Amino acid sequence: MVINANKPSVVALIPARSGSLRVPDKNIRYLSGHPLIAYTISAALDSGIFSKVIVSTDSIEYSEISKYYGAEVPFLRPESISGAHSPDIEFVEHAIHELKKIGSEFDCFSILRPTSPFRKPETINRAWNEFLSHDEIDSLRAVEKCHEHPGKMWVVSGQRMHPLMPFG
Q: Could you tell me the pTM of the whole model?
C-alpha cells in the first residue's frame, strides 16, 4: 500500500443511483425523520477520516438532498453507468476521473452505501485503523458473521423463492 505516511488523504464515495427497481427511491426514503442517505453522510463526516465526502448519483434531487446534509456532489453520474446491473468499478472509476479533473486527488477511497444507515462513525474509524495497521493489505471489506446455517437460507429469484443450497 502506497499512501502518504504523515496523513493519508481519503475520500468517501457514497453511491446513490435513483433507479432502484425493488424499492423505488430507497436512498432518499425517510427513516426516523431523515432520508436514508443522510445517515451515511453524517457517519462519514463525523468519523473525521475523510478529506471529502462525495455522493455519486445520477439524480439532481439526490444531489440537492446530499448537499443539504453536508456531502459534496461535484458531478452527476451518467445514466450509462447508473443501471441496476452496473458494477461498482464503473462509478468508482468515473468518480476518481471527475475528481482528478477538478484537482482533487487522494491516497485512498472508501465506499459507504446509504443502505447501511446504522453504521456509526466509530465503526468507520475502527475499519480505517485496521486498514492502516497492516502494511500488506490494500483493501478492506466489511462483512458480518452469518448466524443461520446456509441450508436454512432462501433467495428470491423473480417471483419465486428457492433454497440457497438446493437439497438432493
A: 0.85
